[in-house]
């Protein structure tokens, strides 16, 4: 009898251990997800209840195990915990477009042996790509583009034998392209891979000949905008499956291999802006070519290549600055699909004859700066064709400047597509193509294959995308696309407008971003967005799942309780460690925020309770302003100091590390033309900055009349001087120097004396000693103010601030938004200036408020300065210290004294005078902007709704 009892007890014990093992396996995913959630700051996904497989946001399961996490564009901030490696059944991980996800990619990612798809596009990850990524043997899709990864490409990626998509573009990766050796793997082993997207990095060295072979199935090789040197390997011609080859913007030299003629499927070949030598390559045989760009190389002087007329599918030919001579054969223009011929800066001469056979498709012939002496069709020029012969002998004849082809052209000067009435939207809203104000989702489409899309006619793609969204029952009313630079950057700003509401909710935004991201895998473009969606309040407290099992003996119950308790304790500790790692202020020491400069006053860390007290519990009476970032409250410290407390709303909060970086930066810059930081609060999921109180609001409010302030001409000059001095301090006197990166009228505040103060350092970047020439970063900024040189090269310098300052000057002159109803102010002024006329002929666009009763002394010099600042190339712009001197000299030369004031107010309400707004950073459209010859619209930057 006793033996039977013992046997029963052993069976019960074994059965309950089995139950516990199964329960732990099923619920280990629950614990891991809770730990992940704990490592993310607000907002966090809607994960409530004890079963992840029941209605948890972004989670899909199979057999009660998590197989997919898809949380695209919901505004996640924090880090990706190493606990992710415990989701042993995970097949898909997609956290794209959460720019607040920072820190390194954990090594534990290599534990996900069943992972098929890893998509982390447009996040803020830093550090090296871990070698453990090569352990993901089942991986098919790897997209880590548009982050801040550094270091070399891991050779272990060569072990991913099932990989079809490799996208590491738009990072800061350096070193050589890895190929296999006797002991290491390399990218040459990826025989199933269709896409090598490695552009916009810092890769150096030669392109290894071993990288390419006839066994490969590549269709896209994209290596543009790196630091690659040496020759293009002849082995490239072995990969006959290729359809797209892009090596532009490197330092490649040597001869172009004749083996390229074997690539009969290539439609787009871009080799521009290198140092390629020898004779122009003869590409006879590449009969699929549609887009060819060989511009800006060091080829030998040659006559116009006759073989070009045999490329029957050619649509765009670019051969700028390649020392071409002779005449252009008329049969070139007989190519059936030819649209664009860009041959400027050569020595082509004789008579231009475009014939009469292809007037249906031909749109542009740019022969600026050649030796053309005559034009056959000059009296019979079709309206649909733009001919540019500026700086040719034909345009030096008497009366030649009256001819359309001799005038200065901007190929993007087109009328707005809509005929909407004057903009009546609020300052944060944008007018849709259907003339409806709203907050669109905004991002960028960067075309990998430029031949795919006709930049003059965006209608077809807009309709296609609209139908795609509507097929998913999304409330999308319209889609708008705008090109920046059709022959170089291939970047379009996309704006997606909501239907029946002024903005999209978080779920709709996430779905739209996910759809565009998935379409990128099958269409010839990349979609990038940097917007952070609304953050929802969540309960971050851990919930422990209690397992109740009936057992038949007290000893068994005790064992089970002990095991369950140990398991719960370990899970709780793991979550606590994750949360601790994600809090950047865990070890905050304000005395270290001054970079070893004790005389500077440190930023004080206020508690939420203190802020509540200073603002009278955030009372309505203390509410002095608001914007897309949240609200600003007036507060009074115990010392009697009046402060402006900026409280971020959920959707505009930065990542914790970005917030900390802004605080540390502001703690060490002190200048009368910079807003001073008093302190901050980072508690209870709040982000608040405590600034000196600046009573007269933003320059933008003054220019639009919202603050009730009218600035005279002299005062505008002095505001410009103050802002310039603040910037010059950042560039030349801060240690280390600082680039602001978001200069705009909304970030210039006016104090009680209307002195300009530069504010909002959320995007600012310090320049370390090893980065004196430039800082390579992910492009950020605000639509309309963004430096085109920075956008195209990702090389950030002080001259990027100078460009933004130039736009600010034009805003002071015109009181217009940088981009208004599809018109970019830089383009408008540049095309309108006539230096032979009074006020340069700008009468129609000058702000009427400064013309009434004022003599605009120094106006022309001010305009000249603005145009110097907005030169397309940063090297052609002045330094901010030179800008300061020019404005000072300008004021003195016209007899203005820097102490004089000229400000009036149109209202007696003191409420306007108390608004102090220092906006939290929002990466705006682009979120960032119609583009002109400068990529001013572009923010990959960046996605806002």
TrEMBL record:
<keyword id="KW-0723">Serine/threonine-protein kinase</keyword>
<dbReference type="InterPro" id="IPR000719">
    <property type="entry name" value="Prot_kinase_dom"/>
</dbReference>
<dbReference type="GO" id="GO:0016020">
    <property type="term" value="C:membrane"/>
</dbReference>
<keyword id="KW-0812">Transmembrane</keyword>
<dbReference type="InterPro" id="IPR017441">
    <property type="entry name" value="Protein_kinase_ATP_BS"/>
</dbReference>
<keyword id="KW-0067">ATP-binding</keyword>
<keyword id="KW-0808">Transferase</keyword>
<feature type="signal peptide">
    <location>
        <begin position="1"/>
        <end position="23"/>
    </location>
</feature>
<keyword id="KW-0325">Glycoprotein</keyword>
<dbReference type="InterPro" id="IPR001611">
    <property type="entry name" value="Leu-rich_rpt"/>
</dbReference>
<protein>
    <recommendedName>
        <fullName>non-specific serine/threonine protein kinase</fullName>
        <ecNumber>2.7.11.1</ecNumber>
    </recommendedName>
</protein>
<dbReference type="Pfam" id="PF07714">
    <property type="entry name" value="PK_Tyr_Ser-Thr"/>
</dbReference>
<dbReference type="InterPro" id="IPR032675">
    <property type="entry name" value="LRR_dom_sf"/>
</dbReference>
<feature type="domain" description="Protein kinase">
    <location>
        <begin position="618"/>
        <end position="891"/>
    </location>
</feature>
<dbReference type="GO" id="GO:0004674">
    <property type="term" value="F:protein serine/threonine kinase activity"/>
</dbReference>
<keyword id="KW-0675">Receptor</keyword>
<dbReference type="InterPro" id="IPR008271">
    <property type="entry name" value="Ser/Thr_kinase_AS"/>
</dbReference>
<keyword id="KW-0418">Kinase</keyword>
<keyword id="KW-0732">Signal</keyword>
<dbReference type="InterPro" id="IPR001245">
    <property type="entry name" value="Ser-Thr/Tyr_kinase_cat_dom"/>
</dbReference>
<feature type="binding site">
    <location>
        <position position="646"/>
    </location>
    <ligand>
        <name>ATP</name>
    </ligand>
</feature>
<dbReference type="Pfam" id="PF00560">
    <property type="entry name" value="LRR_1"/>
</dbReference>
<dbReference type="GO" id="GO:0005524">
    <property type="term" value="F:ATP binding"/>
</dbReference>
<keyword id="KW-0433">Leucine-rich repeat</keyword>
<keyword id="KW-0472">Membrane</keyword>
<keyword id="KW-0547">Nucleotide-binding</keyword>
<keyword id="KW-0677">Repeat</keyword>
<dbReference type="InterPro" id="IPR011009">
    <property type="entry name" value="Kinase-like_dom_sf"/>
</dbReference>
<keyword id="KW-1133">Transmembrane helix</keyword>
């Amino acid at each position: 009898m006793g033996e039977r009892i013992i046997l029963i007890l052993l069976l019960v014990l074994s059965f309950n251990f089995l139950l516990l093992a199964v329960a732990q396996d099923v619920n280990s995913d629950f614990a891991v997800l809770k730990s992940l959630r704990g490592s993310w700051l607000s907002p966090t996904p809607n994960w409530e209840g004890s079963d992840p497989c029941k209605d948890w946001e972004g989670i899909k399961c199979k057999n009660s195990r998590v197989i997919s996490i898809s949380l695209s564009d919901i505004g996640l901030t924090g880090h990706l915990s190493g606990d992710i490696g415990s989701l042993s059944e995970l097949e898909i991980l997609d956290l794209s477009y959460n720019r607040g996800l920072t820190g390194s990619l954990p090594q534990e990612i290599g534990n996900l042996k069943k992972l098929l798809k890893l998509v982390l596009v447009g996040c803020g990850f830093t550090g090296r790509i871990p070698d453990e990524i090569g352990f993901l043997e089942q991986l098919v899709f790897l997209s880590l583009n548009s982050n801040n990864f550094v270091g070399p490409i891991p050779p272990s990626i060569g072990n991913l034998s099932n990989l079809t998509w490799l996208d590491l573009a738009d990072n800061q990766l350096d070193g050589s392209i890895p190929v296999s050796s006797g002991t290491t793997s390399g990218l040459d082993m990826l025989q199933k891979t269709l896409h090598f997207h490695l552009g916009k990095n810092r890769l150096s060295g030669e392109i290894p000949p071993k990288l390419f072979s006839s066994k490969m199935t590549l269709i896209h090789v994209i290596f543009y905008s790196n630091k690659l040197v040496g020759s293009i390997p002849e082995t490239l011609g072995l990969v006959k499956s290729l359809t797209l080859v892009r090596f532009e913007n490197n330092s490649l030299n040597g001869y172009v291999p004749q083996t390229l003629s074997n690539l009969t499927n290539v439609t787009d070949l871009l080799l521009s802006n290198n140092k390629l030598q020898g004779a122009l390559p003869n590409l006879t045989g590449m009969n699929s070519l549609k887009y060819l760009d060989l511009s800006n190389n060091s080829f030998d002087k040659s006559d116009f290549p006759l073989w070009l007329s045999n490329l029957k599918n050619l649509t765009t030919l670019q051969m700028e600055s390649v020392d071409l001579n002779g005449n252009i054969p008329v049969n070139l223009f007989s190519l059936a699909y030819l649209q664009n011929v860009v041959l400027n800066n050569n020595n082509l001469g004789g008579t231009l004859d475009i014939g009469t056979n292809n007037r249906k498709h031909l749109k542009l012939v740019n022969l600026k700066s050649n030796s053309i002496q005559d034009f056959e069709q000059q009296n019979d020029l079709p309206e649909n064709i733009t001919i540019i012969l500026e700086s040719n002998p034909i345009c030096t004849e008497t009366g030649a400047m009256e001819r359309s082809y001799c005038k200065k052209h901007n190929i993007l000067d087109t009328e707005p597509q809509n005929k909407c009435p004057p903009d009546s939207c609020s300052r944060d809203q944008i007018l849709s193509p259907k003339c409806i104000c709203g907050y669109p989702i905004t991002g960028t489409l960067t075309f990998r294959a430029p031949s795919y899309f006709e930049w003059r006619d965006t209608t077809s793609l807009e309709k296609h995308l609209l139908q795609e969204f509507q097929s998913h029952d999304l409330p999308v009313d319209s889609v708008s696309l705008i090109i920046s630079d059709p022959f170089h950057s291939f970047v379009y700003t996309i704006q997606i407008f909501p239907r029946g509401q002024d903005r999209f909710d978080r779920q709709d935004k996430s779905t739209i971003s996910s759809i565009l991201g998935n379409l990128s895998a099958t269409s010839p473009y990349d979609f990038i967005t940097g917007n952070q969606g609304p953050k929802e309040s969540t309960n971050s407290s851990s919930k422990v799942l209690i397992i109740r099992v009936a057992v038949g003996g007290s000893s068994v119950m005790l064992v089970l309780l002990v095991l369950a308790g140990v398991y719960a304790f370990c899970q709780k500790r793991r979550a606590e460690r994750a949360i601790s790692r994600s809090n950047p202020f865990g070890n905050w020491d304000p005395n270290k925020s001054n970079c070893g400069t004790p005389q500077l006053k440190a930023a004080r860390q206020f508690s939420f309770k203190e802020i509540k007290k200073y603002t009278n519990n955030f009372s309505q009476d203390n509410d002095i302003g608001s914007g897309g970032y949240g609200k600003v409250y007036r507060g009074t410290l115990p010392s009697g100091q009046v402060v402006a407390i900026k409280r971020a709303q959920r959707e505009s909060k930065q990542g914790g590390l970005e917030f900390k970086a802004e605080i540390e930066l502001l703690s060490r810059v002190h200048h009368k033309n910079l807003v001073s930081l008093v302190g901050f609060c980072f508690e209870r999921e709040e982000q608040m900055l405590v600034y000196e109180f600046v009573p007269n609001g933003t320059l933008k409010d003054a220019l639009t009349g919202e603050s009730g302030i009218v600035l005279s001409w002299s005062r505008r000059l002095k505001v410009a001087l103050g802002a310039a001095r603040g910037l010059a301090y950042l560039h030349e006197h801060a240690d280390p120097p600082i680039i602001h990166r978001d200069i705009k009228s909304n970030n210039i505040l006016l104090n009680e004396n209307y002195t300009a103060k530069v504010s909002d350092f959320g995007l600012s970047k310090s320049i370390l000693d090893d980065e004196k020439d430039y800082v390579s970063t992910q492009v950020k900024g605000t639509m309309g103010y963004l430096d085109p040189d920075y956008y195209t090269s990702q090389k950030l310098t002080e001259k990027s601030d100078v460009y933004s300052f130039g736009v600010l000057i034009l805003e002071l002159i015109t009181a217009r938004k940088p981009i208004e109803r599809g018109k970019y102010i830089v383009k408008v002024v540049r095309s309108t200036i006539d230096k032979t006329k009074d006020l340069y002929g700008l009468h129609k666009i000058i702000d009427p408020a400064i013309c009434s009763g004022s003599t605009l002394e120094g106006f022309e010099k001010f305009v000249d300065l603005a145009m110097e600042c907005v030169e397309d190339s940063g090297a052609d712009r002045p330094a901010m210290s030179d800008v300061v001197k020019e404005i000072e000299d300008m004021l003195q030369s016209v007899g203005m004294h820097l102490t004089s004031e000229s400000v009036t107010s149109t209202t007696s309400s003191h409420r306007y005078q108390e608004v102090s707004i220092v906006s939290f950073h929002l990466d705006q459209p682009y979120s960032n902007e119609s583009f002109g010859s400068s990529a001013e619209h572009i923010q990959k930057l960046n996605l806002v709704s």
